[in-house]
Amino acid sequence: MAGSGLSNQTGAAIGSLAFPALGPVGVVAVRQYVAAVVLLAVGRPRLRSYTWAQWRPMLLLAVVFGTMNLSLYSAIDRIGLGLAVTLEFLGPLAVALTAARRRVDACCALIAAAGVVVLMRPQPSTDYVGMALGLLAAVCWASYILLNRTVGRRVPGAQGSAVAAGVSALMFLPVGLVVVLRDPPGLAAVGFAVAAGVLSSAVPYLADLCTLRRVPAQAFGLFMSVNPVLAALVGWIGLGQGLGWTEWASIGAIVAANSLSMLTRR
């Protein structure tokens, strides 16, 4: 679980190094290509056997998958890795809290909301576009979770995720062609983008498959709370994106809200 989380955030940090040459859109396009290759190899979908009732959620999942990564990487470009991932983490946290009916979950929601208010408080340097992109990534992650449940019920194995990744990669194919033809990137930039795809898509996906066979779902969900902290640390150490004590307090509040909700769940 630690390797999966660290790989994911390190991949995002490495991908941001290619922003000057490829931009967030170009990096996301390469990441979608890598994810498609890995998931199609693992899932091996049978395209001719699906009905429209199966295709519909898979197509929606493809749109959400691409939008989620594009909004997250655009947010990273504007507000940094730690804050962007923290805002995106509100998506699965919201799904977990809205599915519960306990007083402790209501308290956790208030704690998380307080953290968001502090993060988005008006300041001369506040980038509201970057914040909005981070929140859009959160909405997409929540939608991704809900759609994955539907796809999992209608399509066997990992075929649904593989189809969604493949369709998403096809959607980004024109973007990749435009980026390459308009201003051909150097090998270093392409290498950074490919590394981001491998570390943020392939490695976490395969690691999570192995982990969920050995670790209870509740413990897995609890460890997910560490991702905003890992992102902030990777951004600080690897990219020099330091955070103030208020930002760290906000990240701590959001992480604490998810941890408390998971620890008190039966």
UniProtKB/TrEMBL annotation:
The chain crosses the membrane at residues 21-43, 55-73, 79-97, 128-147, 159-181, 187-207, 219-239, 245-263. Keywords: Membrane, Transmembrane, Transmembrane helix. It comes from the Bacteria. Pfam families: EamA. SUPFAM superfamilies: Multidrug resistance efflux transporter EmrE. Residues 130-258 form the EamA domain. Belongs to the EamA transporter family. This is EamA family transporter.
